[in-house]
Amino acid sequence: MEVKVLDINGVETGRTVTLPESLFGIEPNDHAIYLAVKQYRANQRQGTHATKERSMLSGSTRKLIRQKGSGGARRGDINSPLLRGGATVFGPQPRSYRQKLNKKVKNLARASALSYKAKNQEVIVVEDFSFESPKTKRFVGILKALKVDAARTLMVLNNADNFVYLSARNIPNVSLMNVKLLNTYKVLESKYMVITESALGEMVNVLNA
């Protein structure tokens, strides 16, 4: 599939680039996408939730009521789970939610997500650009020129440009990502993908490796 290359003013440069079939032209695998998204979301969880069990509470160990004859449930000390302020039974404890996924499945899922974007004509290729200083207003102008300012947009860059990053940092619904960090979740999360020319060329080397 061929895509026209635009400049930062949204004007066609007269050049075209070919989206690699191995990344943008495969038959999408929905189950691979599901597994990759599930793994990404699970790996984002901190797993720091915790509740206190009886051994973690400080309090008198004196038995509050007699074992039998009260007509109520038997309970021991003031740390009993039956009482207000008592311990928690089988409550959550800190744990890791990380999941593993085979590399081939992750690559398949990422290529499937990119193929969906190409199929829906939601991939925009722009020529490389850089800023001399952080300027959010200028970056917003680029988004408006590309007609992607009203939707969630993922911009893929080849090299880290600190001034471009600072210019886009406070803009809602805009994410900047290095081509080496591209993942299935970020591709699906965005409506449009804006890819620089050099990043597209690097995609073939990095993502197909």
Automatic annotation (TrEMBL):
<comment type="subunit">
    <text>Part of the 50S ribosomal subunit.</text>
</comment>
<dbReference type="InterPro" id="IPR013005">
    <property type="entry name" value="Ribosomal_uL4-like"/>
</dbReference>
<protein>
    <recommendedName>
        <fullName>Large ribosomal subunit protein uL4</fullName>
    </recommendedName>
</protein>
<comment type="function">
    <text>Forms part of the polypeptide exit tunnel.</text>
</comment>
<comment type="function">
    <text>One of the primary rRNA binding proteins, this protein initially binds near the 5'-end of the 23S rRNA. It is important during the early stages of 50S assembly. It makes multiple contacts with different domains of the 23S rRNA in the assembled 50S subunit and ribosome.</text>
</comment>
<keyword id="KW-0699">rRNA-binding</keyword>
<dbReference type="InterPro" id="IPR002136">
    <property type="entry name" value="Ribosomal_uL4"/>
</dbReference>
<comment type="similarity">
    <text>Belongs to the universal ribosomal protein uL4 family.</text>
</comment>
<dbReference type="GO" id="GO:0005840">
    <property type="term" value="C:ribosome"/>
</dbReference>
<keyword id="KW-0689">Ribosomal protein</keyword>
<keyword id="KW-0694">RNA-binding</keyword>
<dbReference type="InterPro" id="IPR023574">
    <property type="entry name" value="Ribosomal_uL4_dom_sf"/>
</dbReference>
<keyword id="KW-0687">Ribonucleoprotein</keyword>
<dbReference type="Pfam" id="PF00573">
    <property type="entry name" value="Ribosomal_L4"/>
</dbReference>
